[in-house]
Give the backbone structure.
Amino acid sequence: MSSYYYTVFAVLSFIFGSCAGSFTNVLIYRIPKGISVVKGRSFCPCCKRKIRFYDNIPMLSWLLLRGRCRDCKEKISFRYFFVEFCSAILWCASWLCFANTSVVYAVFGMLFCTAVLTVIFTDFDDCFVPDRMIVFIAICGVVLCLSDRFISVYSRLFGMLFCFLFFGGSYLGSKILLKREGLGLGDVKFMTAAGLCLGLKSSFFSTLVSCVVAAVVLSILSAINKNTGKREYPFIPFLGSGCIIGYFYGERLVELYLSLFIGG
């Protein structure tokens, strides 16, 4: 692929990624509330008035309106801008990182990131893990198994098996030993589906990163607020972030570590 077309598609990836981020915000808001995601125009969450088409430009509209609704003047959460920006960056990054190696892996990386962002914020906002997003991630994994060779089919299947055994075992272990859910069943389903997309190496890397970051963040929160131990925090924001990092860097970093270890 020539550098000209490579750059053009990178720019288009950023633009379409921001649009995907706008739709992701729709999914995050509507799915937990049982509202159709395909019917009805976007509306202000405060006054419920329909958003004009020129106020629905990803990122730009939020900045021009200074984060407020044109009609009721109520603040619109920065989260809307943040999700659109993250989606745009991740779509562009997926193209830049993988297009020269595997266009299929690059495109499904974009779709994977969109689905993971949706799950992260529905769990963060409503402690809700939408099954339809898990099914979508699993379908992405199946298509990658059939059409992409960046990661082998066996690695993807073992990645799914590793996530199922590790997180399923953690779920059952906490139920049996602690008599409570230390891990949600939605977390198990999410990681099992993600493992099919990530492959074994990236699944292991994502799990390690997620657990370490979660331990550090929750330890800090516990030190700040002594009542933190009595609260339950959603784990998928950590898992999802780890999966996104793993999708981009897990395979390469694990291979680099293994080469250093074997070489040493």
